[in-house]
């Protein structure tokens, strides 16, 4: 369990909280799906870490990212006209280029060009990768390097991305992602038909082996099987929020990243990137939804009706009563915990080894930050992100599997 003070330090990210300030300063943050931003189309409202922004694609295809409030009178730039590689506020016609420069103030009767030079506009560096628009929200002029995670630089079609907005704190999403023990319990209705990954339901008590890494840590969840073999899933936690998860089948050159990005202290965007290193990702409704901004489905209810759980379906054999998708089960349980879990009341066991290590890793980093140091986890040039690639293997009981760590 954690003290209330430590729980607050880990979970709070808005209003200048240290965790939020650290993440914004040292990491690129996913902000929007690239496909949702149309050249000269409507700007998209974006809320991250309790602050409001707009993202838009300019006439020339580049992406701009501004504070939502116009610097003149605070009108929403989501209402702005997107034209001529700029946004024009509809209130008074002030126009700001995609590069973040004030280029027109039609209400200024004299010396307009000179006046424009003195109008501040808060804009932020952006980068597109894996079908996502990423933004750097830190202070200063030099963004951090983009981490060379397994999906970076892959050809078009080798990645797919989607997300869902969930009423839960960001740490709840991260912990669920890294909790291998729940896979064979919560998701057993789905995993039983998913090849090797179905073995997580055969043995629901994996033994964790953790190895610290410069990016966070790597762990193997080892399950003894009735036939004498071991099923080993080796995943990675990459700070500040990435769960790099192995494919279900051994030797498949595919993986997934799950990451929970704070909208504010009590809401997240729960992201998924599925990638295949050797060939395009095969089309499937489970990883290529019709609306990438709303998948997997949320539970169909709320706390007043147990989040829409289907108890009749449970009587017929469905374990959870949430048949919508595997991810819907995750959302139901983390929403049921409340917007921010009180971790001072937990009772943890051996099956919680990975989530405990998540907390220790993040706590060490944010305490370094509070002490005025550059956290070791943020020294991207010294980190080999390629070593975070996940592995799933099947070995004989006495076979050496530790090399996959």
Structure, explained:
With 405 residues, this protein is α+β, with helices and mostly antiparallel strands. It has two domains: 28-135, Rieske [2Fe-2S] iron-sulphur domain (Rieske Iron-sulfur Protein, 3-layer Sandwich); 159-404, Alpha-Beta Complex (Naphthalene 1,2-dioxygenase Alpha Subunit, Chain A, domain 1), CATH 3.90.380. It is built from ten helices and 18 strands. Strands 11, 12, 13, 14, 15, 16, 17 and 18 form an eight-stranded antiparallel β-sheet that branches. Strands 5-6-7-8 form a four-stranded antiparallel β-sheet. A three-stranded antiparallel β-sheet has the order 1-10-9, with no helix packed on it.
| Major beta-sheet overview | 8 strands, antiparallel
Shape: globular
CATH class category of the largest domain: Alpha Beta
SS strand fraction: 25-35%
Q: What is the averaged pLDDT score?
A: 92
The number of helical segments is 10
End-to-end Cα distance, whole Å, is: 27 Å
CATH T-level topology of the largest domain: Naphthalene 1,2-dioxygenase Alpha Subunit, Chain A, domain 1
CATH architecture of the largest domain: Alpha-Beta Complex
How many separate domains make up the residues?
2
Structural class: alpha+beta
β-strand number: 18
Give the helix level as a range of percent.
10-25%
Uncertain runs are: none
Note the run of SSEs as H and E.
HHEEEEEEEEHEEEHHHHEEEEEEHHHE
Quaternary structure of the protein: single chain
């Amino acid at each position: 369990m954690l003290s209330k003070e430590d729980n607050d330090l880990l979970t709070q990210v808005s209003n200048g909280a240290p965790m939020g300030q650290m993440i914004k300063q040292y990491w690129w943050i996913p902000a929007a799906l690239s496909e949702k931003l149309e050249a000269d189309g409507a700007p998209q409202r974006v809320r991250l870490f309790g602050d409001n922004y707009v993202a838009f694609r300019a006439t020339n295809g580049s992406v701009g990212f501004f504070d939502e409030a116009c610097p003149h009178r605070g009108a929403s730039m989501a209402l702005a006209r997107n034209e001529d590689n700029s946004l024009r506020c509809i209130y008074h016609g002030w126009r700001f280029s995609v590069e973040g420069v004030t280029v027109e103030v039609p209400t200024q009767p004299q010396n307009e060009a000179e006046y424009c030079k003195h109008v501040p506009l808060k804009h932020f560096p952006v980068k597109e990768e894996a079908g996502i628009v990423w933004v750097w929200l830190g202070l200063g002029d030099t963004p951090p390097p983009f981490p060379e995670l397994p999906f970076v630089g892959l050809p078009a079609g080798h990645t797919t991305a989607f997300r869902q907005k969930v009423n839960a704190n960001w740490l709840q999403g991260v912990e669920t992602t890294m909790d291998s023990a729940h896979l064979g319990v919560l998701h057993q209705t789905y995993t039983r038909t998913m090849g090797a990954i179905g073995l997580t339901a055969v043995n629901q008590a994996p033994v964790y082996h953790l190895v610290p890494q410069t990016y966070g840590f790597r762990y193997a969840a080892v399950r003894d099987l009735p036939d004498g073999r071991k099923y080993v899933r080796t995943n990675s936690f990459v700070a500040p929020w990435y769960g790099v998860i192995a494919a279900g089948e051994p030797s498949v050159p595919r993986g997934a990243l799950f990451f929970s990005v704070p909208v504010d202290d009590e809401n997240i965007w729960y992201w998924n990137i599925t990638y295949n290193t050797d060939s395009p990702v095969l089309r499937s409704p489970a990883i290529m939804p019709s609306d990438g901004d709303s998948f997997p489905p949320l539970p169909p209810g709320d706390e007043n009706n147990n989040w829409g759980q289907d108890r009749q379906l449970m009587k017929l054999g469905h374990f959870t009563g949430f048949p919508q998708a595997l991810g819907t089960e995750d959302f139901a349980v983390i929403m049921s915990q409340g917007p921010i879990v009180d971790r001072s009341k937990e009772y943890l066991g051996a099956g919680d080894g990975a989530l405990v290590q998540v907390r220790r890793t993040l706590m060490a980093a944010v305490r370094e930050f509070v002490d005025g140091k550059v956290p070791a986890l943020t020294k991207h040039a010294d980190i080999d992100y390629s070593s975070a690639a996940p592995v799933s293997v099947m070995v004989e009981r006495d076979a050496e599997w530790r090399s996959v760590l």
